Amino acid sequence: MIAALDAFGSDNAPLPEVEGAVQAIKENVCEKILLVGKREVLEKELKKFDYPADRIEIVHAQDVISMDDKASTSVKKKKDSSLVTASRLHKEGLADFMVSAGNTGAVMASSLFTYGRIKNVMRPAIAMVLPTLNRPTLFLDVGANVDCTPEHLVQFAILGRVYSRFFYNREDPEVALLNIGEESSKGNELAKKTYSMLQERNDINFVGNIEGKQLLDGNVDVVVCDGFVGNVMLKTVEGVAMMIMKMLKEQIQKDWLTKIGAFLAMPAFKYLKTKLDHSEYGGALLFGLNGNTIIAHGSSNSTAIMNAIKFGSKIAESGFIEHAVESFMVE
Amino acid sequence: MIAALDAFGSDNAPLPEVEGAVQAIKENVCEKILLVGKREVLEKELKKFDYPADRIEIVHAQDVISMDDKASTSVKKKKDSSLVTASRLHKEGLADFMVSAGNTGAVMASSLFTYGRIKNVMRPAIAMVLPTLNRPTLFLDVGANVDCTPEHLVQFAILGRVYSRFFYNREDPEVALLNIGEESSKGNELAKKTYSMLQERNDINFVGNIEGKQLLDGNVDVVVCDGFVGNVMLKTVEGVAMMIMKMLKEQIQKDWLTKIGAFLAMPAFKYLKTKLDHSEYGGALLFGLNGNTIIAHGSSNSTAIMNAIKFGSKIAESGFIEHAVESFMVE
C-alpha cells in the first residue's frame, strides 16, 4: 500500500508528519509514503532521520491550507496546496489512500472535490471508531452534516454496515440509532422517522435505539446519528475523559502515600491513558466518497500520524470503497 | 422549609425515600417533610428509625405511577397517586417544594398540570448542574423538549441566568450555547439562529459557543441546548465516567502490586467517585413552572434523596420562582 500524506496539516506541521512517516516505514505499516509539501523544508527535516530512503518520496506542493482558511474556497483557490495535491495523488492512483491532520472541513472539501461521491450516496459522513469495554463501535456522522434527514441516516447505516463487514469481518453487523430512550416512540422528529425507516430495511440488522449511557459498552457495531449530535457526543467523550484524568492526577499529588500508591498502580493508569488517547486510534474516516481519506487529529504527534497511516492502509486493503459502491448500486 | 416527598417514585421505593427523609431531618436540611404514599407501608418503614416524630408527617395517597405508565395519561387518571398528591401539597402552599425520583415524564406532567407555567414561558425545561473542574455549570434543557426553536433556547438562557444569580449569587452569569465549534457560523440551523438571537440580547451575558470538550471545565455558568442534544450529552457524560471507572477497576485487579498501589491511592479514587456520583448532586430541576420540583435519579439511594431535599430547600429559599416570574414579566 502507498500512502499520500499531507505533511502540512497538523498544528505542529511538518514535524509530526515527517517523524510519523519515518516510523510508519520502519514499522512496515505500508510500502511507501508520498510526503506532500514544501520540498526544502521536508528534505531538511527528513535528513534528521535514518530510514530506507527509497520508501519515502517527497512530492512538492507550495501552498498550505491553514486552520483559519475557509474550507471550500481555500480548496478551490489553493490547488497547489499540500492537501489538494495529496488528494490528487490518490485520485490518480499513485497512492492507495490519503492522510491529513488538517482542518476537517478543508479535508472533506478537498476529498469531495477530488474523488467525488459514490453513486447514490447523498451525503458523505465522518466516521470514527471509539474505545469501548467490548468490541469496537463505529459512530457516524460525527460532524460532516449538521442538519440531516432520515434518509441520510439510513445511508450512514449502510456505509457503517459495509465497513463493519469488511474491516472487522462481522457477518451481520448490529446497527443502532443514537437516541434518548429505548422505545421507538422516543426522540425528536428525526430520530422517530429514522427508527421506522431502519426497521423496515431487510438489509440492515437494526437493533434499536442506544442511549449515551451505553455508547461505550461496545455491544453494537455501528451507531448512526446526525453530525451535530455526533460531534457533541464525540467531544463530550473527550472532555469527560480529560476531566477525569485531570481530577485523578490532582488528587494523587495531594500526599506522599497516594503518590506511592499511584506509582505502584502505574500499569493500570498507563493502560487507561493508552485506551483513551486519540493518538492510538487511526483518526476519523470519510465515508461515501470514491476514495479513502483518513483525518488525523489536529494535535497529532508522530504516533498518531503513524497510526493514521496504518489505519488507511488497512482500509484500502479491505476494499471498503468497492464494497460500498456495490451496496449503493442496488439502492 | 417544608418538603413534599413522593415516597413511591424510585426504583426501590419506598425504602430510599423513607431513609432519605429521616437522614434529611436528622441533618436539618429542612424543617419538616410530608411523606406521601400508602400510609400503612410508610408507617411500618418509618418505625425502623429513630427521629423527631413531629417533623415527618405521612400524607396518604393510594395510587402509584410506575416507570412504565404513560406520563400524561397516568397523571390525569391517577389523581390519588403519591406523585400528584405531592405536587398538590406544594401547589396548595403546604410544602415549599416537591421531590420525586419517579418517571421523569410523569413528574414533568404532574408539575405542569398542577402548578402551570410561569407567564410568558413557552416551554418548561429540565436543568441539571454537572460536576466540573471549576465553578458549577447549569445545563438546560437536558430532556424535556426534543424539538426546540431558537426562542425556546433564549428563554432557557433567561431561566438559567435567574438561577445562577439567585442560587449562586453570580452577578452577571456567563451563558454559553452548546455547539460544534467556536465561530458564530458553526452548527445546525437551530444553533446558528440561537447564536444571533442571544447576541442581540442586552439582558444576557452571552459568551458564545461551547464545545463538548470544554463542557466540564466549569468556566461558564449556564449552557443552553435543545433537549435531545442535552440528554445525549448528559447520558454520555455518565456513560464515559462509568466506563473509565470500570476499566480502571479491572486493570487494578490484575496483579497484587497494582492492588496495593490502588489501596494506598484510595483517597484519590474516593474523591473521584464522590465527585462523579449522581447521588451527591441534588438531581434535576424543572424550570419555567410556578413551583419548585426536584427530580431525583430513579436509582437513588437514601443519600441521593436527602441531597435532593437539601437542593429543593435551597432552591425554595433562593426565591427562584419569584425572580423568574419577574424576569418574564418584562418579556
For the largest interface, the chains and their residue counts are:
A-B, 60 and 60 residues
Q: Say what oligomer this is.
A: homodimer
Strands of the widest sheet of chain A, in order across it, are 3-2-1-4-11-10-5-6-9-7-8
- Can you count the helices of chain A? 12
Q: Give the biggest sheet of chain A.
A: 11 strands, mixed
DSSP strand tally of chain A = 11
SSE succession of chain A: EHEHEHHEHEEHEHEEHHHEEHH
The low-pLDDT segments of chain A are none
How large, in whole angstroms, is the Cα Rg of chain A?
21 Å
Specify the structural class of chain A.
alpha/beta
Range of strand content of chain A: 15-25%
Give the proportion of residues in helices of chain A: 40-55%
Q: In terms of topology, how is this protein built?
A:
The structure is a homodimer of 331-residue chains.
Chain A: E1 2-6, H1 15-26, E2 32-37, H2 39-46, E3 56-60, H3 71-77, H4 82-91, E4 97-100, H5 104-115, E5 125-130, E6 137-140, H6 150-167, E7 174-178, H7 189-200, E8 205-210, E9 222-224, H8 227-252, H9 256-264, H10 266-276, E10 284-287, E11 293-295, H11 302-318, H12 320-329
Description:
The structure is a homodimer of 331-residue chains. Helix content of chain A is 46%, strand content 15%. Chain A contains twelve helices and eleven strands. In chain A, strand 1, helix 1 and strand 2 form a beta-alpha-beta unit. In chain A, helix 6 crosses helix 7 (189-200). The two termini of chain A are 31 Å apart. The model of chain A has no long low-confidence stretch (mean pLDDT 91). Chains A and B meet through helix 8, helix 9 and helix 10 of A and helix 8, helix 9 and helix 10 of B.
